[in-house]
């Protein structure tokens, strides 16, 4: 029995050894492909042990492991327990099993590779996992591009030798440590495993790349968590500053340096400040930081506290912080208020810089404020008396007053008669002319002029002025100067579709209707006859003093040529003419030596051969209608040869009648002769 039991234990021991060898062999192969030479040695040793294990019991155990690994492992555990139970019956030298280790390091320290190679020691799955953990973190097992800590073990004039607990040490140029002038032996630094082995088998490390990777990790983390970071302001750039944050160059916009505008950026160069990462562009590797964001939260609370103590009408002292085209920002001691350009001065100004300067201390009054939006509206002009209240009480309508043209609009000009008091001169009050023009035709900004007060409302603070009232109204003696029928010369100022406006003198314009421009020409638009600025002779046709209207005529300056044309173009007269224009209705015919134009209907343009006259043709025309009042002449070319036909036909009839009479006369003579001869014969 004892002999059988011993044999059984021996077989179990061999099976356990073979199983361990099998497991070690598989693990060693995997490690050989993925890692360095450190793993190859155990793998070779495992192969040697595997060659010795050729007994039949080992094959049976291997088959069990292949078919049912879990069951095989469980069975192995049972067999191992049996071996341990019968250990007192079997020699201790023949069977030795490594006890399970507690930590990976204990495993490496206690494992005897010599005994493992001779096949005395075996390992189980738990031990192999512990072995993997023990190797984890060594140079042979770290991935390339991984960042780990290394220790400076030696330094030369150009390089630093770094130990990362590997089979070899790495070398890094001191140029990568320029920022750290105090680097010394024993310092721990971050390094990137660039290559585990180069062509010469050397471990390649980089501190600069490690810093960049770690820097981006820190920057991303700071952006996500809102962490405050320190940065070194390196230099100025367009629109802001360049800041070194964790070794990365970040952009600090000028608007994000402080809550107030910065005029001197150079004061921040070479300074270390606190920042908040506000934006990251991973595609272009851009980082934007802000110092303003750190103080805005505190200022917001401070603003609310200050605004909570404000009252409308309260006067405070402040400092001009910024000047814009629309107003001035004043620092009231932690909170800003805006003085709009209209609240800076009672008088009209073009830019706030005309009234205040940067960093100027001044008193302002609180006009309004918004607790929610923390906006404060301030006023400066409200601290002085309104100019209308200081206006001379003796001024009244009709008085003359001097002032300076402050602004010009399309409808008129504003005249500043005193500081803060303006009156409007409407363009219609600049000239007696009824033909309105732009105010710029009369005055310019900055002109010192005199005007007459037309209206004055102190309560509404409004005043209207006039310039034309300084000269006599030209319409007062219009009937004397421009009686009906009188001839004058004027300037063409403007024209419309129905006529021309002619200015006889300043303030007196008259209208010449298009029908009164010419006796003979048919004018479609006044611009075809005269141009703006031309001098034109006119006759006064009508005069309306109350309505200030003057009706003029140009053609009346000459005798009506139609009086003479009445005889020249009497009905039935024939003239040689040329077809000037032609359309479906007929043609316009002109005559050489006369400016009159006649109309020939289309049916009366037919020639003797049946064709019709065309544009440019010259022929004879007969006047078939003449109207002096409507300046109308109607002619016909067809009537020329039609009349000729009638004359020819009449002449033919007359000849025929004469021939008939002649024939009858001859017969009568013969009859008389016959009668005489007969009488003689008797």
Provide a descriptive summary of the structure in words.
By secondary structure, the chain is of the alpha+beta class. It folds into six domains: 2-135; 147-212, Beta Barrel (OB fold (Dihydrolipoamide Acetyltransferase, E2P)); 226-295, OB fold (Dihydrolipoamide Acetyltransferase, E2P) (Beta Barrel), CATH 2.40.50; 308-383, OB fold (Dihydrolipoamide Acetyltransferase, E2P), CATH 2.40.50; 400-470, Nucleic acid-binding proteins (OB fold (Dihydrolipoamide Acetyltransferase, E2P)); 478-557, OB fold (Dihydrolipoamide Acetyltransferase, E2P), CATH 2.40.50. It is 28% helix and 31% strand. The chain contains twelve helices and 30 strands. Strand 14 and strand 15 (375-379) form a beta hairpin. Mean pLDDT is 76; it is low at 1-6 and 20-102.
Q: Main β-sheet, in a few words?
A: 5 strands, antiparallel
The proportion of residues forming helix, as a percent range, comes to 25-40%
Mean of pLDDT: 76
Walk across the major sheet and give the strand order: 3-2-1-4-5
Number of E-type strands = 30
Q: Which secondary-structure class do the elements indicate?
A: alpha+beta
Domains counted in the coordinates: how many? Answer: 6
Gap from first CA to last CA: 220 Å
Based on Cα principal axes, name the global outline: elongated
Strand percent estimate: 25-35%
Radius of gyration: 61 Å
Number of helices: 12
Q: What is the subunit arrangement here?
A: single chain
> Poorly predicted ranges (pLDDT <50, ≥5 residues)?
1-6, 20-102
């Amino acid at each position: 029995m004892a002999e059988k039991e011993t044999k059984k234990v021996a077989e179990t021991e061999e099976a356990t050894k073979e199983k361990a060898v099998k497991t070690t062999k598989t693990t060693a192969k995997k490690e050989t492909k993925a890692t360095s030479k450190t793993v190859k040695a155990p793998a070779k040793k495992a192969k040697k042990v595997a060659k010795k294990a050729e007994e039949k019991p080992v094959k049976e155990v291997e088959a069990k492991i292949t078919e049912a690994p879990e069951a095989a492992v469980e069975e192995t555990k049972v067999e191992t327990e049996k071996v341990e139970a019968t250990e007192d019956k079997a020699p201790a030298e023949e069977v030795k099993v490594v006890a399970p280790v507690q930590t990976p390091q204990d495993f490496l320290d206690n494992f005897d590779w010599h005994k493992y190679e001779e096949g005395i020691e075996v390992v189980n799955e738990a031990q192999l996992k512990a072995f993997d953990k023990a190797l984890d973190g060594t140079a042979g097992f770290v991935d390339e591009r991984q960042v780990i800590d290394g220790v400076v073990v030696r330094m030369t004039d150009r390089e630093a030798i770094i130990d990362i607990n590997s089979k070899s040490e790495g070398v890094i140029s001191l140029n990568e440590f320029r920022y750290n002038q105090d680097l010394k032996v024993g310092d721990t630094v971050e390094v990137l495993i660039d290559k585990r082995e180069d062509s010469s088998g050397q471990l390649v490390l980089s501190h600069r790349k490690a810093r960049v990777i770690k820097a981006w990790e820190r920057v991303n983390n700071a952006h996500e968590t809102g962490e405050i970071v320190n940065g070194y302001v390196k230099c100025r750039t367009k629109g802001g500053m360049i800041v070194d944050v964790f070794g990365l160059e970040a952009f600090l916009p000028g608007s994000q340096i402080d809550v107030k505008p910065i005029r001197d950026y150079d004061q921040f160069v070479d300074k270390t400040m606190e920042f908040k990462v506000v934006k990251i562009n991973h595609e272009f590797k851009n980082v934007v930081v802000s110092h303003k964001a750190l103080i805005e939260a505190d200022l917001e609370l401070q603003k609310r506290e200050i605004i909570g103590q404000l009252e409308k009408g309260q006067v405070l002292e402040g400092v001009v912080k910024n000047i814009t085209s629309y107003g001035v920002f004043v620092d009231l001691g932690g909170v800003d208020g805006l003085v709009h350009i209209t609240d800076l001065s009672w008088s009209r100004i073009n830019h706030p810089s005309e009234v205040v300067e940067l960093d100027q201390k001044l008193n302002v009054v609180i006009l309004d404020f918004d607790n929610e939006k923390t906006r404060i509206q301030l006023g400066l002009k409200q601290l002085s008396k309104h100019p209308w209240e200081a206006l001379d009480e003796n001024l009244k309508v009709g008085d003359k007053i001097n002032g300076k043209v402050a602004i010009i609009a399309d409808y008129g000009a504003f005249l500043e008669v005193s500081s803060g008091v303006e009156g409007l001169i409407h363009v219609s009050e600049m000239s007696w002319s009824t033909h309105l023009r732009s105010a710029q035709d009369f005055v310019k900004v900055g002109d010192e002029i005199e005007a007459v007060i037309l209206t004055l409302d102190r309560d509404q603070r409004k005043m209207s002025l006039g310039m034309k009232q300084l000269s006599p109204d030209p319409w007062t003696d219009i009937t004397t100067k421009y009686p009906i029928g009188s001839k004058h010369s004027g300037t063409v100022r403007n024209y419309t579709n129905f006529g021309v406006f002619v200015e006889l003198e300043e303030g007196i314009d008259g209208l010449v209707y298009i029908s009164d421009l010419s006796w003979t020409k048919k004018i479609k638009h006044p611009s075809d006859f005269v141009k703006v600025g031309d001098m034109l002779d006119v006759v006064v046709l009508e005069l309306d003093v109350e309505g200030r209207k003057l009706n003029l005529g140009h053609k009346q300056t000459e005798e009506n040529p139609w009086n003479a044309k009445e005889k020249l173009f009497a009905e039935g007269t024939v003239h040689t003419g040329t077809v000037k224009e032609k359309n479906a209705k007929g043609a316009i015919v002109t005559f050489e030596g006369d400016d009159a134009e006649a109309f020939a209907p289309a049916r009366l343009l037919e020639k003797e051969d049946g064709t019709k006259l065309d544009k440019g043709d010259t022929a004879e025309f007969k006047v078939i209608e003449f109207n002096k009042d409507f300046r109308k002449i109607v002619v016909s070319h067809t009537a020329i040869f039609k009349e000729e036909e009638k004359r020819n036909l009449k002449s033919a009839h007359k000849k025929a009648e004469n021939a008939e009479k002649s024939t009858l006369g001859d017969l009568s003579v013969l009859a008389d002769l016959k009668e005489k001869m007969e009488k003689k014969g008797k």
